[in-house]
Design goal:
Structural class: alpha+beta
Order of helices and strands: HEHHHHHEEEEEEH
Helix content: 40-55%
Radius of gyration: 22 Å
Largest sheet: 7 strands, antiparallel
Number of helices: 7
Shape: globular
Strand order of the largest sheet: 4-3-2-1-7-6-5
Distance between the termini: 21 Å
Number of strands: 7
């Protein structure tokens, strides 16, 4: 559940109590736009930024994992041929099963991140999404007449704990509506020009449950 300081900050930047709020993000990565479209939009970043501590963690993980990996490979080289073959069969079997499962899965209509038109509202929003904030998550705030996205302007290791976020985008209810498919934990922001944005990555909390119930009612 969002912390008290997040709720306090939300009330301050909205100037009123939100009807509901939830931390969310794009359901999938932003597809690469045509070069001329990206250039005209100012070549904004299309991927989230990372806090420097994230890279420190990667380095530490590499220091631990790479030696372990090399030791495991050395053990394989010294193992008897029969042992290596048996291990190879065990390693390949789950991969083959996963591949069969992937082939059987049919793409869902809602798998895309947006409608595909970069000139419409959803496409223009995506082009400046990580320029507004490099963080992966946004705080979505609903009021009786507005849909607002808030986020910290700087890179945060835990953006959902930050209390320096501000509104980066907002739409009146006559410009956009939220639509949820029954039984799904993702939802769409549908704009009056016909474009849509697929949102998900909801925090697994009381806020997410309350939000989904609110937009479904």
């Amino acid at each position: 559940m969002a912390t008290r300081k997040v709720h306090r900050r939300a009330r301050k930047i909205l100037g009123e109590e939100p009807s509901t709020l939830v931390w969310c993000g794009l359901r999938k990565e932003i597809p690469r736009p045509p070069r001329d479209v990206h250039r005209a939009a100012g070549r904004e970043r299309l991927k989230p930024g990372r806090h420097w501590l994230y890279y420190v963690g990667l380095v530490l993980a590499a220091v631990i994992v790479i030696p372990w990996f090399l030791i495991d490979k050395l053990d394989d080289l010294l193992a008897a041929p029969g042992r290596r073959q048996a291990r190879g069969r065990r390693d390949r079997e789950p991969t083959a099963q996963r591949a069969d499962g992937d082939r059987r899965r049919l793409p869902e209509p809602s798998d895309g991140v947006f409608d595909g038109d970069w000139e419409l509202t959803a496409g223009r929003l995506l082009l400046r999404w990580y320029g507004q904030s490099p963080n992966l998550r946004r705080l979505l705030l609903l009021t009786p007449d507005r849909i607002c996205f808030a986020a910290s302007r700087g890179r945060r290791l835990s953006p959902t704990k930050a209390d320096d976020f501000d509104i980066v985008t907002e739409y009146a209810h006559d410009e956009a509506r939220i639509h949820r498919e029954p039984g799904q934990r993702h939802f769409f922001l549908r704009f009056t020009d016909g474009s849509w944005l697929n949102l998900g990555r909801l925090a697994d909390s009381e806020d997410a449950d309350h939000f989904l119930k609110t937009i479904s009612s």
